[in-house]
Amino acid sequence: MVITFVGHSDYRYREEDEKAVLVFLNETVGDKPCEFFLGGYGAFDGFAKKWCVEYKKTHPNVTLTRVIPYLDRKYNTDGYDGTLYPPIENAPKRLAIVRRNAFMVEKADYVIAYVLYCGGARNTLDIAIRKKKKILNLAD
User: Which of 70, 86, 116 is nearest to 2 (CA)?
Assistant: First the structure.
């Protein structure tokens, strides 16, 4: 099972989001093997990583994978089990994050989102909707 996260870079922490993610992970993943695909940019990605790291402390069958959009940059990989570069090498740099996000959604069984308004997060969530992914939008 793969779970990915989609949200605004200016996300502001809410305690109810924390509780909803924990309930979702306990009900959906439990002790089954699961891979979290994380982007690692912005406030919502920071929130997602924090809860994936916490969840892994009591659920050793999960792995955290940072999905990177560029090969020519160094990334902070602390807390991740590994990195993955999707097959987007022919994408122009300005579209690398968009293509990376689409890849993460394509591979995901579940998408946990926090999307309120138009922008990159909304576009990525729309891909998940079109692909009929199972979605938990914390902003609903």
Answer: 86
C-alpha R_g of the chain: 14
User: Any residues with CB less than 8 A from the CB of 1 and at least 6 apart, and which?
Assistant: 28, 29, 32, 33, 34, 35, 109, 110
CA–CA dist 80, 138 (Å, integer): 24
pLDDT digits (tens, 9 = 90+) for 79-98: 999 999 999 999 999 999 99
Residue 91 · residue 63 · CB < 8 Å: no
Strand order in the sheet with 82-84: 82-84, 62-67, 34-38, 2-7, 110-114, 134-137
> What average pLDDT does the chain have?
96
Q: Which domains does the chain have, with CATH numbers?
A: 2-9+39-137 (3.40.50.450)
